[in-house]
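Deliverable D2.4 — example input (structure tokens):
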């Protein structure tokens, strides 16, 4: 498989997003690492203090599953 496009078209952003999603889903300690916290703070929307990442999976022919992760900055446990 390949991703083709002009410079600045977002090819690297796609690869980075897939890698980020994979790490969040597969590594339960990923979000508490200091480097991850620094990178996440750059991705979180400054106004809403939220970050969404979604993935679509073809479950069966014609059936698609959407998995979304919502991260909220500054959320306090109740």
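Example output (designed residues):
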């Amino acid at each position: 498989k390949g991703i083709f496009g002009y410079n600045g078209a977002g090819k690297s952003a796609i690869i980075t997003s897939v890698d980020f999603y994979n790490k969040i889903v597969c590594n339960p300690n990923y979000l508490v690492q200091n480097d991850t916290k620094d990178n996440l703070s750059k991705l979180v929307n400054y106004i809403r203090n939220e970050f969404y990442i979604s993935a679509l999976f073809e479950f069966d022919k014609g059936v698609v599953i959407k998995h979304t992760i919502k991260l909220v900055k500054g959320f306090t446990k109740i």
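The longest helix spans residues 11-26.
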